[in-house]
Each structure stands twice: as C-alpha cells, then as structure tokens.
Amino acid sequence: MKNAYQIAYGKSNADVLAREELLWPEIKKKIFKLCECSKNIMISIFDIRKKTFLSCSCSYEDLLGYRPAEIIDGGWKFWYNLIDPREARIIQKQISNFIFSRQREINSIYLNYHIKTPSGKWCFIKHELELYHINNEILLLNYLYDFSDRESIEKCLGKKINSVYYNNLLDVDISSRELEVLKLIANGFSSKQIADKLYISGHTATSHRKHLIEKFKVNNTAQLIKRASELMQL
User: Fold this and answer.
1) What whole-number distance in Å separates Cα of residue 195 and Cα of residue 146?
2) Is the separation of the CB atoms in 162 and 176 below 8 Å?
3) Is the Cβ–Cβ distance between 39 and 62 less than 8 Å?
4) pTM (two decimals)
5) Distance between CA atoms of residues 36 and 26, nearest Å
6) b or e along 158-189 (b: 16 or more beta carbons within 10 Å of the residue's beta carbon)?
7) Which residues are listed as membrane-spanning (predicted)?
8) What is the 3-class SS of 148-187, one letter each residue?
C-alpha cells in the first residue's frame, strides 16, 4: 500500500517510515491543499476510522453543482442519493464493501456510474477509490472525472461504456469481449446464440464461458450469473 511520503513526493526510501512520522503534518497539509484547490478533477478525502469526509475540492461545485460542504456534511448517504436509482444499489454495496472490509489486500477500485446534478442533468462519471495507510490513519482518496462527453460520443459511434465496471475489485480480470459474452449469458443466450450474435465460432463462445466460470471461481453457469450479478450490473 502506498505511503504518505510517496503520495506527496513520489519517492520511495528505505527510511520512509521514519520520514513519514517526522514529515506527516507537512505532508498532510500539502495533500489537503492539493485536494481543495483541484480544478480539473473532483477529489475528496475520507477518514475510514472516523467515518467522515475530511476534505473536498471546489471542483465538485464547478463540475457537478454541489458545494464541498454538502459532500462533507452529508457524507456517503448524501452521495448515494444522487446516483441513478438503477445503479445505486450495486454502487453503494461495492463502495461500502471496499471501504469497510477487513481485508486490505485490494487498495484501489474504479467505478463508472451516473450522478444527478441540481439542474436535473445526468453526468456520467468515472470514480477511482484509493486506500492509503498513513501512520495510524487509513484514508480513502476519491478521484472523480466527468465522462459525460465521452459517453455521448461513444453513443454516436454505437458503443456503450459499461455503467458499472470494476474488474479489479475481487481480482476478477475480464476482457471487453468476455464482458459481452457474460452479459449475453446472463440474458439466457446459449453458446451457439452467442457465437451467432458476436460472429465468433461456437468453440470460441464455449471457451469464453469456460474461462468466465474459472475466473469467477464458480462451478457452473447458474453460479456464474449469480456471482457476476453481485459484482456488476448485467
């Protein structure tokens, strides 16, 4: 897991732990200033142990229309209420599991979903969550990007960005083609039907199904659909 010295200075020294303790007040001040002054990226810092937001960039108001104080005071409950209802349940579950899980093997995830602005407009955002152990603190850094224009362009091109996608969440690494196959499987398509729809051979379609079952560490297609549905919107 990354440390404070690396965050602020991008360095890695053998005595980094000692430097952390000595420099932490200075580093923390620098990180918070960078967060609050960010213009191009929405950034917020959440204290895992205190269960509260410590800082939030002014860019939330510039890009989404919400004041930093609304995010800090309202917390995750306020944020979850802004998410598209079709995505809210799974997004809330994944963020909560990531933040409050006792297992700290995974230090980062990313999510794509829609947020409603005060004007009623839907913004498509990419949300990156990074965990950092700093001295005796565990901080969650949130980086959010407005992908609305990209979504509009890709819609014109007939391509859809996955609304909810986090293939690194539980060490499940699937390709875009495997994701296509997975969604068709979830919709009841047989391997032959998948092959016809995607213009691939029946053998390739069957291989994709087999690999997905292996990657999700399940025993059959029914378990695959159930497990995948818990992790992403199909």
Assistant:
1) 35
2) no
3) yes
4) 0.65
5) 16
6) eeeebbbbbbebbebebeeebbbbbbbbbeeb
7) none
8) HHHHHHHHHCCCCCCCCCCCCCCCCCCCHHHHHHHHHHHC
What ranges do the domains of the chain cover?
4-156, 176-231
The model's pLDDT over 150-207, given as tens digits with 9 standing for 90+, comes to: 888 877 877 666 555 444 444 566 777 888 899 899 999 999 999 999 999 999 999 9
In terms of Cα–Cα distance, which of 231, 205, 200, 201 is closest to 218?
231
Q: What is the pLDDT of residues 99-127, one digit of tens each?
A: 887 555 567 888 889 999 999 999 999 99
Fold of the domain spanning 4-156: Beta-Lactamase (3.30.450)
How far apart CA 58 and CA 85 sit, in angstroms, is 26
How far is the C-alpha of 203 from the C-alpha of 219, rounded, in Å? 19
| Tokens, residue 22 | 């000595």
**Beta strands, E only, the chain:** 42-47, 52-56, 108-116, 122-134, 137-146
Token pair, residue 91, equals: 């997004």
Q: Looking at the domain 176-231, which fold is it?
A: Arc Repressor Mutant, subunit A (1.10.10)
Whether the CB-CB separation of 64 and 115 falls below 8 Å is answered with yes
